[in-house]
Amino acid sequence: MMIGNREVGRNARPYLIAEMSGNHNRSLDRALAIVDAAAASGADAIKLQTYTAETMTLNVSAPGFVIEDPDSLWAGRQLYDLYDEAHTPWDWHGPIMERAVQHGIDCFSTPFDETAVDFLESLGAPAYKIASFEVTDLPLIRKVAATGKPMIVSTGMATVAEIDEAVRTARDAGNDDIVILKCTSTYPATPENTNISTIPNMREAFGVEVGLSDHTMGCGVAVAAVGMGAVLVEKHFTLARADGGVDSTFSLEPAEFRTLREETERAWQAIGKVTYGGTKAEEKSRAFRRSLYIARDMAAGDELTSDTLRIVRPGFGLPPKFYDQMLGKRVTRAVTAGTPLDWDLVA
């Protein structure tokens, strides 16, 4: 499929999304600086999240509305307050998208309810992302699919049946421009919990291209995922983790994202096709194989022995597999040391 002017698929280099999320730290200037840095670091797109605290949750402290997991980055935080802190003000979307256009990269968003979809449509968003936690929100998926824009669907925690329902819902709404993302919904995620071997299975099971929404540290998992066939990689992005922010802990800095750009592209280039016998680029290297050579000056009729016949580089003589067969044979003419052995030299 196409997002803006970029092809997304196995015939194109990996499409890289820099997820801004709440790393703007409530500053539009910082948000615009993140766009600048993402573009300079090789991102194909900057991604936002479009919601308000009101559209995400209720402003209550009842059980379930406060994060109780002591291992969570946001332990003890009320959901409403966390979303209020992390959300991107809607009046920032236009300037951020305009800055992305100036850099020649795409900018789109994750809508979390139907009002967000309508708002993003008014801005001409080129694509949509469905978050892992909304993959079961079939009415939202139906609404997004009806726009006809490309859809990127994260599948963290989702069962096979739930992914199938999401894909079928989008297709039934007339949209087949879908990429689903292997995702582990922990923040940060560990490589051990990422299971990227699922990627080719997902492509076969659901008949769509597959990418990776990656919350691990570094770029190793993403590079490996591209090797497994991922056509798209999404990573959280910040100017500097030391600046803090709701998602900064598991976000890439600009230099790291540049490495991601370079290494995922190398991984994609390396996949190639099944091939044996060497490539055209390797032809000159054949000269450095071993082969059979005359090791000492010999007169016509002299016998080939382990002293007069050697297996050495370069590779212009007979292959080494004929060594035993040649021992005991006699040369048909006088030869000097360094002569490659050929069939017409032996009798």
UniProtKB/TrEMBL annotation:
InterPro entries: AFP_Neu5c_C_sf, Aldolase_TIM, PseI-like, PseI/NeuA/B-like_N, Pseudaminic_synth_PseI, SAF, SAF_AFP_Neu5Ac, SAF_PseI/NeuA/NeuB. Pfam families: NeuB (PF03102), SAF (PF08666). Residues 291-347 form the AFP-like domain. Its EC number is 2.5.1.97. It is an enzyme of class 2 (transferase). This is Pseudaminic acid synthase. GO terms for biological process: carbohydrate biosynthetic process. GO terms for molecular function: N-acylneuraminate-9-phosphate synthase activity. Coiled coil: none annotated. Keywords: Transferase. The keyword RNA-binding does not apply.
